[in-house]
Amino acid sequence: MSPFYVIPTYQSLLRNFPLLKKGDLLLTRIPIRPDNFHLIFDLQCREVISFPSFLSQILSASKVAQAEILREFMPPYTYVIKNQVSLLQVMQNPPPYAGFITKKDQANCGLGVKLWRDLEELFNLAGTQALEFPFVLQPLFRDWKDLRVIVLGELYKEAYLRENPDNFRQNLFFGGKATPYELSEEETTFCKRVMERGGFFFAHLDLAYIEGKGPYLSEINLKGGIKGASIKPLEYEKILHRLREDFFNHWKEEHQPFEIL
């Protein structure tokens, strides 16, 4: 009987890619780029196990993927725009808001978020370098409460309110302030549902309340900045390492013999 294989690094994955089979374990992330998507599809078809999960890696790298796959948790009037036709469809029946934002597919820290006066202004630049397809389109909600939630498996959880009176981008990268926040049972359950749907063993979730309604999912990522959080970087990394080791140890119980490549 051939052993199960454990792949601890991306370099090891590339060297040993043809050897992998059902039940083998990948313990590293795959860079999510157009030239790498076929690797994920193939590994999934071969039933290779991954920590983090393949789906969570894809969702973390793509705001468009989040808006499509996690649509049920998103704010109302969240659209994925892939071409001018899909944008025109929104314009034919526009949401009842003045002002819109777009989110660049693979950008973080609010750097890919742009503000538009109206859909016509947006349409004039859609598909150019100023606004490349695909992107996420949402109304500019005026009454918006922003929460960052950090969930590290069952080992750690904290939340804080993010506020920035000088910028519609509420994240701390643009000068926002963080205030500790006690999650309700409903909010905790909401986070668990999102993580289960996206295959997240750990996550940073951005939640939103709009005009007093919510929570909604704004974004989710496997990792993010911890500025404003109580947890320190060293403790954070130790918990992530323990989650990885716990997953590995549980996998070993049903996958013997194994070999680390």
Automatic annotation (TrEMBL):
<dbReference type="GO" id="GO:0016879">
    <property type="term" value="F:ligase activity, forming carbon-nitrogen bonds"/>
</dbReference>
<dbReference type="Pfam" id="PF08443">
    <property type="entry name" value="RimK"/>
</dbReference>
<dbReference type="InterPro" id="IPR013651">
    <property type="entry name" value="ATP-grasp_RimK-type"/>
</dbReference>
<dbReference type="GO" id="GO:0005737">
    <property type="term" value="C:cytoplasm"/>
</dbReference>
<feature type="domain" description="ATP-grasp fold RimK-type">
    <location>
        <begin position="75"/>
        <end position="229"/>
    </location>
</feature>
<protein>
    <recommendedName>
        <fullName>ATP-grasp fold RimK-type domain-containing protein</fullName>
    </recommendedName>
</protein>
